[in-house]
Batch of 4 targets.
Target 1
Amino acid sequence: MGWYKAVNKAVKGKFYTKRDANTKTSTSTPTSQAAASDTTSPSSPPAPPTPSAARFAVSSTDAAHYEMKDNTVIVVFGASGDLAKKKILPALFGLFRQGYLPTDVQIVGYARTKMEKAEFHSRAVSYIKNPDKDAAISAYDDGSAFKALNDHLLSIEAKYTSKERNRMFYFALPPNVFVPVAKNIKEHCYAETGVNRIIVEKPLGRDLGSARELINSLMQYWSEEETYRIDHYLGKEMVKNILVLRFANVAMGTMWDKNSISNVQITFKEPFGTEGRGGYFDSFGIIRDVLQNHLLQVLSVLTMERPVSFSAEDIRDEKYPPITQEDTLLGQYVGADGKPGYLEDDTVPQGSVCPTFAATTLWIHNPRWEGVPFILKAGKALNEGKVEVRIQFKDVTQGIFKDITRNELIIRIQPSEAIYMKMNTKTPGLQTSAMATEMDLTYNRRFADAKIPEAYEALILDALQGDHSNFVRNDELDVAWKIFTPILHWIDGSRPKPLSYAYGSRGPAELNAFVERYGYHRSPSAYEWPVTNLGAQ
Ligand SMILES: NC(=O)C1=CN([C@@H]2O[C@H](COP(=O)(O)OP(=O)(O)OC[C@H]3O[C@@H](n4cnc5c(N)ncnc54)[C@H](OP(=O)(O)O)[C@@H]3O)[C@@H](O)[C@H]2O)C=CC1
Ligand SMILES: O=C1O[C@H](COP(=O)(O)O)[C@@H](O)[C@H](O)[C@H]1O
């Protein structure tokens, strides 16, 4: 699964085309007249990444790859919610500011919550780093509301000079309304003379059965090519970089297998607990929240084969057996240092055994990866915020250097993007001894002026351009659920008591022994990262 993503992009050799920065954009409500206002770019937009000789614009009339440019409306469902506020609206605004949004794009917010425009405006701009003066507002099973939405869209589109009407619908919604919304849009808001797309957020199901049911229900109304299933980790710069690192560097390619690699850890750590979001979280748990989607997607990019073709069969060539109980460690945080434990969160059901921390080890049965453990770990309320891939190489097996520190390649996804390789080098001086050090590519030092795009910016732009390569395909989702469904059913059914860990710690005390079981050797404390280097982080 998964390999076609960024490779597809590389094969197409595509470069994004920046739009005119003086484009007008506005956001509006279906019920009131569009609150349109000129929003020229707040400041001079940075130079676009458009190598002129290689510029490639999608011009196919084939709807699957059609680039939505002129005559495009983006409708954000769930516009009053957290996701829209924190991620989607800022990403849209970020794209606009940089000149990437289609000419004359209109953004329409749709929500159940009744809200004054002013209130919505303040919510919408609260997470926009460089707010400007426009915003938007607006029952998910109420066909007449969707007719009203369609009327509103038609009023926006009335000014188009051609018949082309492109509509993008973003589902920033709880999954229980995905199907009615998909149905209502198709029945009442589908543009007959243009391209229509939906972007759907996780969670897509609770297990294999419910995911298939949901996908099939959605597919009654929307085809695979019209559907963009988002996993925002696939839009993160360092996740996208993994394929370049692997396939554009011969040196990396040769060491990317069981012959050189001992074990791999993919780690997600958040330094805060559920803090009021326990209601939602408790019904899912950390495995559904992070491992089954985000970390598994990182794993797939890390381990996929070079593409042979983009067919589903090639994806299924990889063999991922389901995770077992023996390969799983579950934790739940308890209060420490004044910070509340998970069970002290008022929104969490009493006595919940929901895991807030999980480490699971996956195995891939193919010639490249046979025998290499892939440890996925994720937790809330830990000692730091960090997402990284840590590839630990095997020991030097012979000669005078056989007892020294192992090489490790670390891809830090966030914060402070970096790739560093822990290496052994001769200790500078007259003596001949080896010491651990690093080869270091810290992004904000090496690419000081580069703007790293937000994941949602990158993915919304892909969707507008008809590029599915960084979205989750139907069959891929199926594989992801097959891997995790048995362990999730065991957790849901047997309710095993998770191990406790203190808020602010690295996780359950048993974690170190768990990762050691799979061959991980922690570097000896002799390795020290010079504090002066931290300035650049
Ligand atoms: N370019 C850069 O920015 C670079 C930064 N550095 C910095 O140098 C420091 C050291 O780097 P590095 O060795 O990669 O990272 P760490 O020492 O932070 O972590 C290394 C690994 O050891 C585990 N670990 C941490 N503490 C313990 C413990 N007490 N017992 C057992 N295992 C433990 C970690 O697990 P877990 O994650 O689960 O806690 C992680 O898998 C870090 O702060 C890093 O950010 C180093 C090189 C380059
Ligand atoms: O999908 C989710 O991801 C976030 C973490 O996203 P990030 O981009 O900040 O790394 C996580 O907090 C949330 O629980 C989960 O649902």
Target 2
Amino acid sequence: MTMHPVQLRVDRLVKSFSAHRALEDVSLEVGTGRFLVLLGPSGSGKTTLLRCLAGIERPDGGSIRLGGVTLTEGHTHLPPERRDLAMVFQDYALWPHMTATANVGYALRRRRLERAEADRRVAALLERVGLTARADRYPHQLSGGEQQRVALARALVAEPGLLLFDEPLSNLDADLRERLRVEIATLTRGSGATVVYITHDQAEAFALADEIGVLESGRLVQHGAPEDIYHRPASPFVARFTGLAGELTGRVEEPGEGGRVVVRTDAGPVTASAPTAPVRGAAVRVLVRPAAVTLDGGADPAPDAVEGTVVDTAYRGRGYDHVVELVGGARLVEVFTRHGRPRGSTVRLRFDPEGCFTFPEQAPTEADAQVPVNAAPMEVV
Ligand SMILES: Nc1ncnc2c1ncn2[C@@H]1O[C@H](COP(=O)(O)OP(=O)(O)OP(=O)(O)O)[C@@H](O)[C@H]1O
């Protein structure tokens, strides 16, 4: 899917644990220097896929190639240390008996470098992650954020072709998480390495990625640019997992032009995108992105606006998020405006068809059940 030469090629990867299929026929390609984020709920197979790439886990079938080298296929299975890659773990995984300098330098042990050159590279990396003053400390003398910076420096120092990240920010608190996220984004891109990064946090995924792969029950269900995933989710599962204001049910009134349909909902007619052209009268569900909802202001409401009641309002600094209940009972969260509307007031909403997706009505899948109800939908991208 990219113009970049393919660096990492995964073909039909399969992995089971006893009777449980953790990876089901996963194929993907990542271009040189691209940043791929694998996103999915707990148990979707993210860690298993990453561990197969690293060589810690041996797949049951399929192949993995990196820069023209076969890492795994049939009887071939290169051990982790013979793969041109480095991994950053959730729990840092530093050597407790080594200083920051020694931990970073350890990654160079196989590169027959002159001592002075190795020392120079380690010092340069520690400086880039802002740890020069902490170079002689042991892991237990460093904060979580500092330990993760050492791990980042250790991953980068040997200049591997592939960098793997296993939820590296999940043990840090919000403020630090944001700062380290920016450092990971800039330092990895500066290194030219190809990156595979796993997370279950959609906001983190969208902020970091050149490409996002969404995993559902061991299958890669969509792989594309963040904008594609946001504007053209392949399934209700993908749409839900990447942030919705809410869902409306109804019937197709007019199978309109250019992939648009008018859906008659309990709250009124809503124009929405239709990835698969539904027929007139079909029962459908309209999934609505937060960015697609606007509160209609003042005296001159649009004729196609839908009425609702403000149930809750939350001040967000830049403006207010509202929870709005529509006629028929559907609720929309994260309805944003600069100026807040009081609880209990009647408001009119407009929907941008670009951010409203029509799918045939069907019972939720097992994987949908893992998406937390009212998972904080992401900010407008
Ligand atoms: N060593 C193992 N033995 C048995 N089952 C396993 C093993 N490792 C993973 N699994 C199972 O495989 C499935 C995928 O697990 P995996 O850890 O890859 O998911 P994940 O998406 O990374 O989830 P999380 O975000 O919770 O880490 C899960 O159902 C898990 O229970």
Target 3
Amino acid sequence: MLTRRYPISITEAQAKINQVALPTKTETIPVTDANHRVLAETVTAPFAYPHFRRSGVDGFAIRHEDDHDYPHEFKVVGNIPAGSTFHQPLGKDEAVRIMTGADVPSDAGVVVMLEKTRELADNRINIVVPEKHSNITEIGEEYQTADVLIEKDTELNPGGLAGLTALGVQTVTVYRQPRVAVITTGSELMAPGEPVQEGKIYNSNGVQIPYLVRENGGVITNVEQLVDDNALLQASLTKAIAENDIVITDGGVSVGDYDFIGDTARQADELLFNKIKQRPGSVTTAFVQDNTLVMALSGNPGACFTAFYLYVEPLLRRFVHQPSRIKKVQSRLAAPYHKTNGFDRILRATFTEDHGQYATYPNGPDRSGALSNLQTTTCLIKIPHSNRPIELNAEVETWLLPFK
Ligand SMILES: Nc1nc2c(c(=O)[nH]1)N[C@H]1C(S)=C(S)[C@@H](COP(=O)(O)OP(=O)(O)OC[C@H]3O[C@@H](n4cnc5c(N)ncnc54)[C@H](O)[C@@H]3O)O[C@H]1N2
Ligand code: MOO
């Protein structure tokens, strides 16, 4: 028997997912594995940086009190390659040859660049012109001990990892990435590589969804392809729910004879929604079972793509205390669109930007099952439900997609 579903708006559906409390899970990992991970603890400097007086140039280190009356002759009393130290006191008009990055002797006040000197006989040099700067980076110039290196909730990048490494930090405590299992369903599905068969289609969402998850911060633990069999689905779901933070199912969520997700969602601990006033993606369903969120996406590739960005991407980011990477802007609909809609229509589109003004262009077929525009789509736009076509150049709500 057909059970009535009560559609809610896109905003309501997003709010319902947003209200699901997510556990904060952290792990401590090597800095060398931490690119794009999000710090769960602020990291502070274990020592001052730099921790020795460092020469910024190749040249000659001299005492501050000898730094006058140029041109002026100095006796060269030593040589300090980077990585070495020199502890002999410097006397009047004595200079030490020093390389960029080397430890400046404690009694030197200036490093004069090589280009400002002339070599003379008998280990002597003539400093011809004065330096404007000391060319010495003093101890603690960048960080004092206990200064904040990087704040909690920051996503690390290669520059940040360099900073941590320079300060001797070897491990960081980060939020654990959400573990996500993907269950694709449908007896019509062929695995990529199988010979083409009448009435069957390749499991394209089985490739699309895991990559969408990975590039938006999740870890894929398992991807399954099931025939339409409720016992198989329930067994897979039970296992996936026990082992993951989020489970994404695909297909079988509508009202067909083999669409088992609908009933599963109704019987779950908490049904968040099972119909959204949007096209494509109206069948998108969300429920919580045993504290795990199950996002049930449509099998139609266009609907699956659209619902992923509207509902799953923000969830993956929230798991690691990050805002969604989708930029919400208003844009001008720069190409005509004539269809009218009972539900809000989410169009796959492309955009141009000029001084912060966005123009958007619907990107080919907007049918739920169409996938020819998934590669080139860079944004989604909302054509609000109405019985009159939207006007050209109307302002439309727009979601600029990350990694697109
Ligand atoms: N009587 C009704 N029929 C349908 C309704 C409705 O309200 N009443 N809704 C339609 C809408 S809207 C959508 S969207 C689809 C949703 O269907 P499901 O999410 O249940 O998915 P399936 O029926 O399993 O498949 C839909 C379509 O997508 C293809 N598919 C499935 N899995 C994959 C995959 N992994 N990779 C690529 N393509 C896949 C499948 O072969 C179908 O063509 O229901 C409408 N029907
Ligand atoms: O739910 Mo369907 O994707 O509206 O077309």
Target 4
Amino acid sequence: MLELIDIGQTYGKKPVLQGVSRQFGQGVTVITGPSGAGKSTLLRLCATVEKPSSGQRLWQGDPVKSRVKRFRAALGYAPQRIDFPDDLSGLDFMLHVAALKGLPLGAAKAQANTLLDRLGLARDASGRIATYSGGMRRRLGLAQAFLGDPQILILDEPTAELDTVTGGHVNDLIFETAVRAVVLMTTHLQDSLAGRTFDIFDIQPIAA
Ligand SMILES: Nc1ncnc2c1ncn2[C@@H]1O[C@H](COP(=O)(O)OP(=O)(O)OP(=O)(O)O)[C@@H](O)[C@H]1O
């Protein structure tokens, strides 16, 4: 379980999040709220990419900051945009991320190939990322998040810019993973989740 206690985030003098408290258990929670409410900010704080200005993040009851290495080993995170090393192939990029996560090479190769296949990148796995389309880059950015069977998966707009069929495959993978993981995600395409079971955590902009 991931727990946020009275989380606040301020950029300069601008408060973006204030008093956010919530427990996230196994399964999918979709973070909703109007543009600018702080959804991506909340995901970055949960993914330990940023530190909150105030409040606490707990993972399995322990402060995340005291066990950050352990937390990150259990984490898969796909932000909206990744600056890829364009000279690597998609497969080499996956293996690089897998190595950072501490996966043995054999398991890394097997998982990377399975994920690339499921996200429709198998044929292009050995092609340079420089040659990938925008949609292929998005799918690669998502694929890396699933490496290492994450216990916590954080996805910012995972199906944005994908066609309906590919978006459906991505949602299948997300909900399969959510059977054994805490999944937090944003999406402007909530209709595409019709028929699936998930929680909603709605956040609203702080009144000026
Ligand atoms: N690093 C930063 N420095 C300064 N302001 C920031 C920073 N990151 C986000 N903000 C501001 O925080 C607010 C919340 O941004 P955020 O991207 O989290 O919103 P969001 O709910 O995800 O929006 P959207 O639905 O449009 O993606 C915005 O006003 C944004 O300009």
